[in-house]
Amino acid sequence: MRLLPLAAEPFTAPAERDMLPSERREFVRTHRTCVLGYRRRNDGPAMSIVYYVPTDEDELLVSTMAGRAKANAVARDPKVSICVLDERWPFSFLQVYADAVVERDPDLIVDVMMAVGWRMSGQQAGVEARPFIRQMAEREDRVVIRCRPYATFATPPRHLHANEQATQLTHWGSSSLPWNGPDPVAR
């Protein structure tokens, strides 16, 4: 498994139609922030805005502390939702449904923390930063939540650019599609 680098440009969702399955995967691979949703014992679902790191095996990795609610919830119940956020106008998002596990591999934890730092700062840290990141990971008792997507739900980026609802604002339905679903064959 290889962590994907920070994308130079995030995928832009089409505004005139639903995203194809391949476009949904590209949207996830090229963005960096999401709302991670997980079940709580009581009350409604919990949600945390986090940076995530995609892999070449289409997993999404999230760094957190072992004592945080995210890690504890995943240990209890592996079903999570990931709402990948577009950072550009017009805003869109893509819901990803995934099975998650908590990983404690020290090298993976450091790799993910370095990749998250790259996504946060826009600058990749050099190998000389690894010992400091490793110390931080140990001090904070860091873990990685490994999310394996199985389905997606897209929402189109449809917004008003002027107060012309009658002519500009249209919507269409979307549906949940399998993560590895094929694109429809063009006719």
TrEMBL record:
- Which ranges carry the Pyridoxamine 5'-phosphate oxidase N-terminal domain? 21-149
The answer to whether the entry has keyword NADP is: no
Oxidoreductase listed as a keyword: yes
The record's section on SUPFAM superfamilies has: FMN-binding split barrel
Q: Which GO terms describe its cellular component?
A: cytosol
**Keywords (A to Z) from UniProt:** Oxidoreductase
The record's listing under InterPro entries reads: F420H2_bilvrd_red/Heme_oxyg (IPR052019), Pyridox_Oxase_N (IPR011576), Split_barrel_FMN-bd (IPR012349)
A molecular function GO annotation: oxidoreductase activity, acting on the CH-CH group of donors
Q: What is this protein called?
A: Pyridoxamine 5'-phosphate oxidase N-terminal domain-containing protein
